[in-house]
Amino acid sequence: MTPAELAAAVLVAAHAVFAERGLDRSALPGHTTVERPRNPEHGDYAVTLALQLSKKVGLPPRELAAALAAQLGGAAGIKSVEIAGPGFLNIRLDAAAAGELARSIVEAGAEYGRGDRLAGLKINLEFVSANPTGPVHIGGVRWAAVGDALSRLLRTTGADVGTEYYFNDAGSQIDRFARSLLAAARGEPAPEDGYGGAYVAEIAEQVTARRPEVLTLDDAAAQEVFRVEGVALMFEEIKSSLRDFGVEFDTYFNEKDLHDRGELEHALTRLREQGHVFDSDGATWLRTTDFGDDKDRVLRKSNGEWTYFAADCAYYLDKRERGFDRVVIMLGADHHGYVGRMKAMAACFGDDPERTLEILIGQLVNLVRDGVPVRMSKRAGTVVTLEDLVDAIGVDAARYALARYSSDSPIDIDIELWTRATRDNPVYYVQYVAARTASVGRNAAEVGLTRGDAGSFRPELLDHDKENELLKALAEFPAVVAAAAELREPHRVARYLEDLAGAYHRFYDNCRILPRGDENVTDLHRARLWLNDATRVVIANGLRLLGVSAPERM
Predict the structure, then answer these.
(1) How many Cβ atoms are within 10 Å of 390's Cβ, its own excluded?
(2) pTM, two decimal places
(3) Which of 125, 185, 273, 369 sits a CA distance of 20 to 30 A from 418?
(4) C-alpha to C-alpha distance for 507 and 509, rounded to whole angstroms
């Protein structure tokens, strides 16, 4: 019996109680949840429905709990129901009902953990969006890992997700990049406000190889060539490095297109229609203070130039007009001040920003060697890049390490820890279970042990404490996935997988799966093989959500 099946049984019991007592069934929820008690002595699952409903129907919670317990006590698969505290129900399943979960998981395969809680919601998820003026630095890599994992989670829970990279190819930083490339091509020092690092010289060399006439042009014309060609080369490199990291986007959106298509004017018109635009001192302003911003924001300067904020407005409107119900933007630690103005901007368009706009802020990441932060890249000069991180610990470890922590917490990635083939390396600890479960399957085949067909499965034999502990852990996976998606917290999946790995190791150490020597294969061996294979399914499904491999051998 899965937690969802038990929750459904609880609701059936509640409907029966309400019918018997003539209570208003409109007070019943459409669905309920069951929880795993922290103390195993309190049962397999706990239910708080009686506490939730007692005030609505005017019954003491323990009286309502007693009526629910009487109904549930006769349900198939339930061993006992006890009333605890003010009205909790502690439920124990019989071994057969608990063990059935192993078969359900194996038969569901890659579908186990999927849900429809976010079905019907169309989400635009923008992450990384690093300026094409240099390689992706380690802060951006964090969003690559977390954002990609979040997109997988949202899709797994039913949302229609479009991932997006905002390609900022307009503005002063691009001009500085072009001037830096031109200086490098001429063998001159980088401009004072320009970009350094070996990558600048590399790209300048590629541009001059493509366009050898560029060095004969005047400064303005040469700078334009380096702007167009250099940005294209840099962005292709960014896309390639992200692709190697396992991250690809549905849409790469150019900021320049907003300008070329007149979308800034379109956004300005919409904002004027909403009544929040005013003109002052020759500039055009958006009155964001009407919606809690600390000051009003300039859209167009007195010299006629658009501001970055105007492009932000146009880009948000473009996403909404493409049919997205919710716009989710992931930003670095230095963008806290951005949240208020963006929420106010959404409100100026007439949207409810609590429903249509989410801004997630990620904190800093350090790569640490021998207890000391690695500060510089050999190639980028001033920052640690995606390639530096992957070279140091590999793609799987990098993705797992970055997704393992809440994104609003700073993290240090210790090179020695994340390359160690020991249990204190979290990704090794989890992947080792993937490999061990696969190894058990191979060894089982060698000794003639197979699961057999589903009809011959004897789930009631899985009655050992460690088997029960592992089954409970496996049952939690769908709820963990749903919570991680709704709360935008992929790290919940990583921490769950580590707990599951621990439960499997304890099962493996205490419950022999394979027969010894000339021992005959029994139904217990087969049942345990079902449980072993169910664990591999869940480990693989969880690692897939994080973009990490589930190896068959290590």
Answers:
(1) 18
(2) 0.88
(3) 125
(4) 6
